[in-house]
């Protein structure tokens, strides 16, 4: 589908591909049913970006736009798809619902346009993969990268270039601890350096935006690193947010078991709110 703008046509698939490559979340709105007169017909699609703008495609004029944009913002907020039914007032009364109400999994909105048609729109969020940023090239780091990819994470390795060959298939590899070019809406950092550049990796990790920064090591070692960084003026709140030892307490011994415990903790953190 191609939409003409004042400057140039925007291809719907190209727009989705670009947003995926840049890691920007967006929603796809698809008209699945129409009744009576509506500007858009079943099959019409549009791409809605995180800022609420409709960047490609078309699903009709202002009659349904506000309700669909609202549903898109909510879908991008909680990661759940929505079915929106835009209907005239008398049709809403026949269903026994009011505008803004949800019934049987359908969100209802009122069509204020003269056409008085009905349009059902499915809104699906497309969210980037959560980023698993692993510092180090230790056996635990290698096991984390392998299991993380299988669990659907975007795996980023921060380790010396000569150590990158230790890993199998990964998404991004950087030679040091400069995370400034990484862009992720949802990030989890694991410091798995285990004696090789601990302080540098930890300093970079707690400075980067992340839902969780965990350290593979003992309480005593983490406390010593905290004290060293605090003496260098690192923010105390960021140091306090460091989680150590990384992972759930499952009695893990091998690198693979430790990786499992760490990713189990991350998955639990990710899914906790969504289950609720």
* Content of β-strand: 15-25%
Radius of gyration: 24 Å
Strand-and-helix sequence, N→C? EEHEEEHEHEEEEHEEEHEHHH
What is the CATH level 1 assignment of the largest domain? Alpha Beta
* Largest beta-sheet characterization: 7 strands, mixed
Judging by the overall fold, what is the CATH architecture of the largest domain?
Answer: 3-Layer(aba) Sandwich
Largest beta sheet: strand ordering: 5-4-3-9-6-8-7
State the helix count: 8
Give the structural class.
Answer: alpha/beta
Poorly predicted ranges: 1-7
Q: How many structural domains are formed by the residues? A: 2
Please, what is the average pLDDT?
87
Shape: elongated
Helix content: 25-40%
- The number of distinct β-strands equals 14
Classify the fold: give the CATH topology of the largest domain.
Answer: Rossmann fold
Q: How far apart are the termini?
A: 38 Å
The CATH superfamily of the largest domain is known as: NAD(P)-binding Rossmann-like Domain
């Amino acid at each position: 589908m191609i939409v003409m703008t004042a400057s140039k046509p925007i291809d719907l698939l190209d727009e989705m591909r670009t947003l995926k490559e840049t890691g920007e979340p967006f929603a796809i709105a698809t008209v699945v049913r129409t009744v009576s007169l509506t500007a858009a017909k079943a099959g019409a699609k549009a791409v809605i970006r995180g800022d609420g703008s409709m960047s490609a495609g078309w699903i009709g004029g202002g009659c349904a736009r506000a309700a669909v944009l609202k549903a898109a913002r909510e879908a991008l907020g909680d990661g759940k798809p929505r079915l929106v039914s835009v209907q005239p007032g008398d049709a809403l009364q026949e269903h026994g619902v009011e505008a803004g109400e949800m019934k049987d999994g359908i969100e209802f909105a009122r069509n204020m346009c003269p056409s008085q048609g009905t349009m059902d729109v499915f809104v699906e969020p497309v969210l980037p993969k959560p980023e698993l940023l692993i510092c180090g090239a230790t056996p635990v780091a290698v096991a984390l990268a392998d299991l993380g990819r299988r669990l659907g994470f975007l795996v980023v390795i921060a380790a010396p270039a000569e150590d990158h060959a230790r890993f199998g298939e990964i998404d991004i590899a950087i030679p040091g601890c400069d995370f400034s070019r990484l862009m992720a809406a949802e990030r989890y950092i694991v410091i798995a350096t285990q004696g090789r550049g601990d302080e540098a990796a930890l300093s970079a990790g707690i400075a980067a935006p992340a839902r969780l920064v965990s350290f593979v090591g003992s309480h005593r070692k983490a406390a010593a690193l905290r004290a060293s960084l605090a003496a260098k003026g690192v923010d105390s709140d960021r140091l306090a947010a460091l989680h150590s030892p990384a992972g759930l307490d499952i009695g893990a011994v091998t690198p693979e078991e430790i990786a499992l415990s760490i990713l189990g903790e991350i998955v639990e953190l990710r899914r906790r709110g969504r289950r609720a």
